[in-house]
Amino acid sequence: MATSKVLAVMEQRDGTLRMVSHEVLAAARRLAGTEGTVDALVLGEGPVADADGLGAFGADRILTATHPEFRLYNPDGFAVTIGSLASGYLAVVFPATTTGRDLSPRVAARLKVSCASDVIDLAAEEGGVAVTRPVYAGRALQRGRITSTPAILSIRSNTFPAEEVARPGAVTAVEVPAFAARVTVKEVKAKGEAVLDVSEAGVVVSGGRGLKEPANFKLLEDLAKAFGNAAVGASRAVVDAGWRDHDAQVGQTGKTVSPGLYIAVGISGAVQHLAGMRTAKTIVAINKDKDAPIFKVADYGIVGDLFEVLPRLTEEIKKVRGGQ
Amino acid sequence: MKIAVCLKRVPDTTAKIVIGADRKSIDEAGLKFVPNPYDEFALEAALALKEKAGTGETAVYTLGSDASAETLRTALAMGIDRAVLLQSPGSPDGMAVAQALAAELATAGFDLVLMGKAAVDDNNHQVGPMVAELLGLPCITSVTRLSLEGGTIEAERETEGGIEVSTCALPAVITCDKGLNNPRLPSLKGIMAAKKKPLETKPAALGSATFEVTGLELPPDRKAGRIVGEGAEAVPTLVGLLRTEAKVL
Ligand SMILES: Cc1cc2nc3c(=O)[nH]c(=O)nc-3n(C[C@H](O)[C@H](O)[C@H](O)COP(=O)(O)OP(=O)(O)OC[C@H]3O[C@@H](n4cnc5c(N)ncnc54)[C@H](O)[C@@H]3O)c2cc1C
Ligand SMILES: Nc1ncnc2c1ncn2[C@@H]1O[C@H](COP(=O)(O)O)[C@@H](O)[C@H]1O
User: Fold this and answer.
1) Given Cys at both, which of A231, B52, B71, B85 links A201, Cβ 3.0 to 4.6 Å?
2) How far off is chain A from B96, nearest CA to CA, in Å?
């Protein structure tokens, strides 16, 4: 097989790289192997903090594409720029974030090649790039091969752990071709205080109808705070009832999450909920009904009243974290 | 205002998945099929926009087997004016589907094309933006709020970092997410009326597929978990296991 060149598309916001970018590099590195090269592409209005440190995470080159209209996401400008750079690469790897999922198929269509989204495993093979991806809302895994080049891929968050691999990481500016911005992103409205997104957090603590009323989510917020790196998720039942924002919803019609630890509290474990969290590395369930289906997927369960269990759990987690 | 909706027929979301004999697709025997849930938001948005404008035409397009006609009838019963079934054998890849849909939509002069953000079977998240690129149209994906004023669309979508507010001019392609609206149910009158609405059938002009499915399997079973105990007393045991066994703390 010829030496592989892989382009890894980084994601930044407000001039700072997002964590998922390191995961994209790790996935790209896996495809390129030690012989191949990985170029990290950073698109932005100006310099992006930490971008010149991407060499430590496996980037052979760091390509910077700056443009005055790249302060916020610019779907057409980004797609044109990536399209113009893509030839000669075995694959172009994106994060399967809202932005990456928007951008990757645009690039694929411009190049008239195929695209695989939400990839959880990948390998370079004779004749193409092999991928594994969840389908049927996580109830099956599909294996496939992209035979067109470059293979356009988006990778699921929390699946390819960031790796420190020292590579040269030489910074090179690349040209942004002329483009017509058909879509303008006017602003990004903050969702109140900066909250960690459930799809990106390392720990997710989710609540369901068992919490009885919206104010009781305070118990979960306290637990999340005790962990430090946790986000608060929710079942659809409580989102539909208006207790939580729907961007917190985990499940088939919500977010798919793969955190290191998922704690389901007062959630029965309907198939549509499981679809969104069954790939978590460790699952804990707290439910007063010992026959609740959530216990079938949970690694560890506590049968009991969440109003007694949660405060105690928060206390114990504080002890553990405090002692570190 | 002419609005097109692209609708896919998918297995019911609660259906138990059984792997087919070819080990590449599911066994469809006995499965119930429904309109893709995200496409229902697109149907509702199309109907609401037409109602607000007071005039216009709504059409629904499906690429699939002849069985998809049933899904199209559901859309007609909700109130869509006419339906087109692009017949296709098997399940082509996203790009091939996008090429067929784009070829068909290009000839019809729509002001707006509405789709779902993703099909819940293939989880591709790609046909919408691909069709837009192929048609040279602006596209906003995963929209949770949509307004239309004098030929300009303003839309919101939820991203990991906040709510992104975008604008574009018509004609455009929009993909819909949960939260956009509450899809209506077909009324009895609608179901009767649907029988008389036009449903055109023709072969799909598929592009060539370069994503080859090589296998399909059930996800590995999670290894049997255990109940560590009852009530608050079980918490220290749980935390201990999370530290020493699962090593997540
Ligand atoms: C097309 C479709 C898509 C869907 N998509 C999603 C989705 O994306 N995400 C999703 O979550 N759902 C989804 N659903 C809904 C899903 O089927 C369930 O209705 C929903 O997940 C139930 O939410 P819940 O577990 O919070 O509520 P319930 O099922 O009512 O469960 C509440 C649980 O709390 C427990 N409980 C009550 N009190 C206490 C207490 N004091 N202490 C401890 N435990 C207690 C009960 O034993 C029970 O198990 C979808 C459904 C459909 C049809
Ligand atoms: N076979 C199809 N026929 C009609 N529309 C489709 C088809 N496949 C996908 N779509 C549309 O494209 C959206 C995204 O699908 P996908 O890219 O497959 O996840 C769906 O919600 C539909 O609106």
Assistant:
1) A231
2) 9
From the list A138, A183, A308, which residue is nearest B219 (CB)? A138
| Residue contacts between A and B (CB atoms, under 8 Å) | 269
Residues of A in contact with B246 (CB under 8 A): 261, 281-282, 299-300
Helix/strand/coil percent split, chain B, to 5: 30, 35, 40
Task: Report angle CA A16, A133, A96 to the nearest 5 degrees.
Answer: 20
Tens-place pLDDT, residues B50-106: 999 999 999 999 999 999 999 999 999 999 999 999 999 877 899 999 999 999 999
The range of the structural domain enclosing residue B71 comes to 2-203
* pLDDT number for residue A192: 64
Instruction: Write down the CATH number for the domain with range A5-173.
Output: 3.40.50.620
**Structure pTM?**
0.90
Nearest to A148 by CA among B228, B87, B210, B243: B210
Q: What is the mean pLDDT of chain B?
A: 95
Name the closest ligand to CA A270.
1
The reply to whether residue B165 touches residue A114, judged by beta carbons under 8 angstroms, is: no
pLDDT digits (tens, 9 = 90+) for A72-102: 999 999 999 999 999 999 999 999 999 999 9
We find that the CATH architecture of domain A203-320 is 3-Layer(aba) Sandwich (3.40)
Q: What is the pLDDT of residue A324?
A: 54
Q: Which ligand is nearest to the CA of B98?
A: 2
* Atom 23 of ligand 2, nearest CA residue: B115
